[in-house]
Amino acid sequence: MEPLRQIFALVCSRGHCWAPGGEVLPFCQRCTGLYVGAAVGLALVALFRPRPTSLFLWAHGLMLLVMVPFGYHLVPQNGALRTLTGQLFAAGLVGYLALVPAAWLRFQREDGDRGSGRYALGLIGSLAALQAVVHLGGRLAGTVLAWLGLLGLIALAVLLAANLLLLPAAVWRAVQRRAVSTAP
Predict the structure, then answer these.
(1) Structure pTM?
(2) DSSP conformation letters of 118-180
(3) How far apart are CA 81 and CA 109, in angstroms?
(4) For residues 149 and 32, is the Cβ–Cβ distance under 8 A?
């Protein structure tokens, strides 16, 4: 666990940490939600491939905005709320960061919108599941959460890099399509 502590020391202050089964996680309570939530969120996006409807975009935008009052400590909060808000922020972030790579890879569903409902249920279920694991989990749960957190950190880095590489080309393609569609 020490190598994970050293890695997360670069991105987390580790102010309030969960200790499932006595195993102190290498990141704080909010980062537990952020990094574990990112790993789970990306897995749900890959599994259910939700379509980026306006509801999807609005919901994920609201998940990002929830961090304003909670991230800046404008609202009193306990560990469960810190983890929940971190997880909601991660879901919103992954939802948006996955848009460009998914479009580039033509990864969205084509069989209607059934995947979006399952995706939403998976996200809601993951909120409750993470709370249960950090409160009731044993030592093995702590180890699994720590490694899931590392996967989430890697997932966010890969999604960010993919967006930095693909976004300029995606914007260029959209501009070209618009120019062709509006040409007389």
Answers:
(1) 0.88
(2) HHHHHHHHHHHHHHHHHHH--HHHHHHHHHHHHHHHHHHHHHHHHHHHHHHHHHHHHHHHHHH
(3) 33
(4) yes
Residue 8's identity, in one-letter code, is F
Distance, first Cα to last Cα, the chain: 63
> CB count, 10 Å around CB of 91?
31
DSSP assignment of 167-183 equals: HHHHHHHHHHHHHHHH-
Q: Among residues 26, 12, 47, which one has the least CA distance to residue 144? A: 26
CA–CA separation, 114 and 109 (whole Å)? 9
Could you report the per-residue pLDDT of 108-155, keeping only the tens digit for each?
A: 655 556 778 899 999 999 999 999 999 998 999 999 999 999 999 999
Query: Number of structural domains, the chain?
Result: 1
**Domain boundaries, position 146:** 2-182
